[in-house]
Task: structure prediction
Amino acid sequence: MGVSQIISKDLDMLPEIKKILYSTDLSKSSTTVFEQVIYLAKKTNADIHILHVVEKLSSDAKITLESYVMDSTSRKSLLQERTALAKKKLEERQEYFWNKLDDDECAVRHQIKSIQIVEAYPAETILKTSIKLDVDLIVMGTHEKGMLHSFLGSVAKNVLSRSHIPMLIVPLPLKEG
Result:
């Protein structure tokens, strides 16, 4: 049996990918991760679900904001602004990405089945969403730190340590583009 036959046989044994959850931090370099998601979706014909979690304020931060800075109505307004800003940023990142591709490559765009922006705790929300959507793969990026070593970001590390769903962690470039 030749090497190509062994590799082909091993690929046939991999679980089928029908749904991908792409969790994005909306950084400019997150386009690198989205490229991987699109590539995988194109190869597997998988549906794509995009998730961005606006980090929930801690209880102490909420109390401080509500007690000393703003009332609950102002806080609700602030949350709506944060969510609207995240949605706008996500749309900008996607448009930038799609505009770089030719029409043939853009055909995968119809495979995006949902886009969610929520205020919550990131790791818990990613895990719950992956189960709720019954995804086959979670894809996330992580920023590299240090000269010789790359460490997973706290959210990616937390999700990876608790997930029962396969994950693809893509290192993000050091510089924001």
